[in-house]
Structure formats: C-alpha cells, structure tokens
C-alpha cells in the first residue's frame, strides 16, 4: 500500500525536534497557537463540564440520591443502559459485516452503499425520530399492519432501539474499515488455499486483526447511544417508568428547575461515557503504535 | 461444510465462498435498506402525499421563515468558529510536542461522548440564575440564556471534534517536509501556512466543515434547553419541528424535517464528490 510506505517515510523526521530557521519568533508563534488551542478547549469544553460535576456533587451524594428517588429515575437509567448495550452489540456485528463487504467485495452499487452508510452523519437526529414516526407510527399503513400483529415500534422500546441503531450505524463501519484496508488479503487467500473454509478464515485470520477496532467502534456506539436525545425523544413517547430514557429524564429535571438533580444524573451518565471514550482512545492508539 | 472444506474438492470450496458472499451482500443491503432507506422513503412519501398546498402554507408562515433564518445564522457562526479554531487545535495536536498532549486529544473527543442535554444543562448552570457567570453578563445587560449567544455556544461545543478529527490525520500524513522546504526558502510561518499547508488540507477541512454544518443544523437537545424555544424569536428549524409535532401539525413538521435532511445530504454528497475527484487528480 502506498499510504503505508509514505507514513513510514515521514515517521523518522517527525520525532526529531530540529531548530527552526527563524528561531525565537517561530517559537513564540508556536506557544501562541498552543495557548489559543488550550484556552479554546478549556473554556468551551472543560469549564462547562466542570460546572455540571460541581453542581451535581457539590453536596456529596445528596443530589444524586434525591434524583434517583424520583419515580421512573432508576427505570430510565436501566432502559438507557440496556438499549445502548443492544445497539452496541447489533451494530458491532452488522457494522463489522458491512465494513467487510465494503472493503473485500467488488460489486455494483458499492459506492452507493458506502455513501448510504454515512447518511446518519448528515441527517439531523431529530429528523431520524420524525422519520421513524412517519414510517411506523399509528397513522401510517406500515404501522397499522405491524400493530395488528402486536408489534409496536413507536412509543415502545423497539422504537428507541431502532432510533439508536440508525444514529450510530456509521461508527463501527468507519472504525473497522481502515484496519481491514491495511490487512493484506494474501493472508486470507493463504488460509483458504490451505483448506480453511470461509468462516474459519474469517474467525482465525481476519477477526484477530480487527478485534480492537470492533471493540473501539462498539464502545463509541455505546457512548453515543447513552446520550442520544433528538432521535429518541420523538419516538419513545417518554412514558415515565416505561419509555423514558436517561437523557430525556435529565431534560425534564432541567425544565422543572431542579438543576442539582439534573446535574447529578448527568454526571453519572457522562462519567460512564467518558471512561468508554478513554478506553477507545487507548485501543486506537495501541493499534497505531503497533503499525 | 466439511466436504467443501476438504482440500480435495477446491471447486466445492469456491462454491461455498460464492454463496457466503451472496448471503453477506444480502444481509448488508437488507440491513441498510430497512434501517436507513425505509424511513427516508417513508417520510418522503408522506410529504409528497400531503400535496402542494402544505408546502406553500408552511413556507409562507413567518415563524417557519424565521426558524430557517435562525438555524442558518447559528450554523454559519458555528462553522466559522469551529473551522478556524479547529485547524489551530489540529496543528497544535499534530505538529507540537508538549506534556499532556494525549489528554488534550481526549478532550477534543469529549463532545462526542457528552449528551447534548448535558451541554444545555451546563450552559444553564454557567449563565442561569446563581450561575458562575450570571453576574458578569447580567450587570452589563447582556442576555446569554434564552438568546442567540447561548444557542451558538452550545452548538459550537457539540461541533468542536469534527474539523479537528478530519484535518488532524491529513496533517499527519502530510509530514513537515514541504513546510520545512518553504521555510528554508525564506517563507514566513504565515506564508507557509497559506501557500503550503492550507492547500494541502483544504479537502479535509471542507469535509469537517460540512459535518459541522450538518450537525449544527440538526441540533436539538442542547438548543431546546438554553433557548426557551420562544416562537418567532429563539425557535430554530428543529425546534419548530418539535413544536409542530406537539401541536399535531404533522404535515408541516414532516416537510421541514425533510428539507433539513435534504440540505445536509446534498451538502455532504457534494463534498464527498469533490474529495473523490481530488484524489483522482492526484493520481493515487
């Protein structure tokens, strides 16, 4: 692969810090840029999140305890965790399949399929929810037919799952794809020539190489699903104790002027996704170092 | 299976691989079709069925026009800020070496993991009653919450990662050889950036900007909390959809939703096309 060779060629020159020709002026410029970047991220990202954590846990666990005592609070967190887990598993498997198909197979419509996979990046999340209601809602023909067979999607957990699957579809595909691209197909051919079946080849040759990428993509999917609001709020119906998710619960607490409780639940949710993102970062970095 | 696997029957093995291939393709197309295409087709069909008069009525309504305008203003401001500062952050992360660079890189990704609702809540905690910055702005008569500034701020927060994550890898791949050459030939850092670096990263930058714009246009969770959703004042296009659904004006809601989706799709498709053409030009 030409890209691989190029990075190798660049690598050595990057590690060496050589004196810049313009000397201290360039050094000052670099410090200035670094200052701008740190100030921007500090003010825009860290400060607001600190405010949430301080508000939520300024009085210890009191705010969290009172928030969790509200009716439907525990159920909302459980629903969010379970539906996010389901989303991560389903899109982990089918996202890997999509990435494999897109990288290894040549077929008509491949470019189109690849473009469609990115659709969720373009479509506003609220619109995703609206689309699901338009298609599966009680006033649509599809919704009526499904309803007659006892399948309820809108205002039911199944709708939440569909919305989360839609919104997170590209994440696993786009993390697994580059790793598959770098994997030499010759190894797979060799396994096949030696008599391994298609499934054995995938399980023994391909899967070990892409496993960290699948894990990273699935974790990212889980983290993204935990916080999803726009797509879910329309589809779920937000019935307390039944289809109320944690982000919508935080929204309700905020609009009821209970910022402490909202901040406590928000911190809980955010802590989970933060740990997941850190783990993902570690997985991706390890891959880059291994190259 | 065992027969197909036997080395003595290569034709059986090939046949097996062929069927596996067809099955995988069927699953891939089936999943994408049901999950992504069916809802899009569903809403398009509903809008078309609604007829032309819905469109003329909706687009003539002053609150709809104001909502589009406000979404446009917020999107442009967000794209400008996250584009400019995103390039700075990407340059610093790729070219600069300092203690804690990994942490800064993780901070850039944080907005991807934070629920928009939490972002809105944070803005309320900072600028609302009893907030850390409330006194600072209130005494000067500057309205932050329930007004444009907070709506732009929360949207910027959410869009921070896009440009950094698109430009970063391009800078990495590029290396410093061309920049070093320009500098040795006497170009100032500013000249080097505009003549050498910027032309090389422009497609990554454009793609990041497009992702930012799409996200900014569709933002709801954070904006819903900080704006107060005042009709005709702080109501964006997504907030209009939200209200129209609650007021059972489904036809208008679907129509505005479809225009938002259409705009973002066209935007991303155009840039994807440019990007591919560019790669072809470079002969790679």
Question: How do you describe this structure in short?
Answer:
The complex is a heterodimer of chains A (291) and B (284). Chain A has 291 residues and is an all-alpha fold. In chain A, 80% of the residues lie in helices and 0% in strands.
User: Taking Cα atoms only, what radius of gyration of chain A do you get, to the nearest Å?
Assistant: 24 Å
Largest sheet of chain A: none
Structural class of the helix and strand makeup of chain A? mainly alpha
The two chains with the largest interface, and their residue counts, are: A-B, 106 and 102 residues
Question: In one word, what is the shape of chain B?
Answer: globular
Strand content of chain A: under 5%
**For the residues shown, what is the average pLDDT of chain B?**
88
Q: How many E-type strands of chain A? A: 0
* Unreliable sequence segments of chain A: 1-21
Q: How widely separated are the two ends of chain B?
A: 41 Å
Low-confidence runs of at least 5 consecutive residues of chain B: 1-8
Quaternary state of this entry equals: heterodimer
Q: What is the helical fraction of chain B, as a range of percent?
A: over 70%
Tally the helices of chain B: 13
Layout of SSEs?
The complex is a heterodimer of chains A (291) and B (284).
Chain A: H1 2-15, H2 24-57, H3 62-69, H4 73-104, H5 110-117, H6 119-122, H7 125-136, H8 141-148, H9 157-182, H10 185-193, H11 198-227, H12 230-236, H13 246-255, H14 259-290
Chain B: H1 2-5, H2 10-50, H3 52-60, H4 62-95, H5 101-113, H6 116-127, H7 134-138, H8 148-174, H9 177-184, H10 189-218, H11 221-227, H12 237-246, H13 250-281
Helix pairs in contact in B: 2-13, 4-8, 4-10, 4-12, 5-8, 6-8, 6-11, 8-10, 8-11, 9-10, 10-13, 12-13
């Amino acid at each position: 692969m030409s890209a691989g060779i190029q990075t190798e060629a660049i690598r050595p020159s990057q590690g060496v810090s050589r004196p810049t020709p313009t000397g201290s002026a360039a050094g000052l410029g670099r410090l200035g840029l670094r200052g701008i970047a740190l100030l921007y991220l500090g003010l825009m990202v860290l400060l607001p999140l600190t405010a949430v954590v301080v508000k939520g846990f300024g009085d210890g666990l009191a705010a969290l305890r009172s928030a969790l005592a509200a009716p439907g609070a525990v159920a909302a967190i459980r629903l969010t965790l379970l539906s996010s887990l389901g989303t991560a598993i389903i899109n982990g498997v089918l996202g890997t399949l999509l990435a494999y198909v897109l990288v290894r197979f040549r077929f008509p419509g491949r470019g189109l399929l690849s473009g469609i996979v990115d659709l969720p990046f373009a479509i506003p999340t609220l619109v995703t929810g609206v689309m699901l209601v338009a298609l599966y809602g009680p006033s649509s023909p599809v919704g009526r037919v499904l309803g007659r067979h006892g399948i309820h999607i809108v205002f039911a957990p199944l709708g939440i799952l569909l919305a989360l699957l839609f919104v997170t579809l590209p994440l696993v595909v786009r993390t697994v794809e580059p790793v598959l691209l770098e994997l030499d197909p010759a190894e797979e051919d060799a396994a096949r020539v030696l008599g391994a079946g298609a499934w054995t080849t995938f399980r023994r040759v391909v899967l070990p190489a892409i496993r960290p990428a699948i894990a990273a993509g699935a974790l990212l999917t889980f983290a993204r699903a935990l916080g999803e609001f726009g797509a879910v709020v329309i589809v779920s119906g937000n019935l307390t104790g039944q289809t109320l998710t944690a982000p919508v619960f935080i929204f309700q607490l905020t609009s009821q002027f209970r910022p402490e409780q909202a901040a406590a639940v928000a911190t809980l949710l955010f802590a989970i996704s933060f740990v997941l993102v850190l783990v993902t970062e570690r997985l991706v970095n390890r891959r880059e170092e291994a190259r | 299976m065992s027969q197909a696997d036997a080395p003595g029957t290569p034709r059986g093995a090939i046949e097996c691989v062929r069927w596996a291939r067809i099955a995988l393709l069927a699953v891939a197309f089936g999943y994408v079709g049901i999950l992504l295409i069916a809802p899009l087709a569903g809403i398009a069909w509903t809008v078309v069925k609604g007829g032309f008069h819905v469109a003329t009525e909706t687009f003539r309504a002053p609150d709809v026009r104001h909502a589009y305008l406000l979404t446009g203003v917020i999107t442009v401001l967000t794209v400008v800020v996250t584009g400019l500062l995103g390039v700075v952050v990407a340059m610093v992360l790729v070219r600069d070496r300092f203690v804690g660079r990994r942490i800064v890189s993780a901070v850039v990704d944080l907005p991807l993991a934070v629920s928009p609702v939490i972002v809105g809540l944070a803005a309320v905690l900072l600028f609302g009653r009893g907030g850390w910055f409330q006194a600072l702005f209130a005494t000067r008569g500057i309205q932050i919450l329930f007004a444009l500034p907070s709506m732009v701020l929360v949207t910027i927060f959410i869009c921070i990662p896009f440009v950094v994550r698109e430009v970063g890898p391009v800078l990495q791949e590029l290396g410093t050889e061309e920049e070093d050459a320009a500098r040795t030939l006497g170009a100032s850092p500013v000249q080097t950036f505009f003549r050498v670096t910027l032309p090389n990263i422009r497609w990554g930058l454009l793609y990041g900007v497009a992702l930012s714009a799409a996200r900014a246009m569709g933002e709801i969770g954070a904006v819903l909390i900080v704006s107060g959703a005042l009709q005709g004042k702080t109501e964006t296009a997504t907030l209009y959809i939200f209200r129209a659904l609650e007021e059972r004006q489904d036809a208008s809601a679907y129509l505005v939703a479809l225009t938002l989706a259409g705009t973002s799709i066209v935007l991303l498709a155009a840039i994807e096309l440019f990007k591919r053409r560019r790669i072809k030009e470079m002969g790679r």
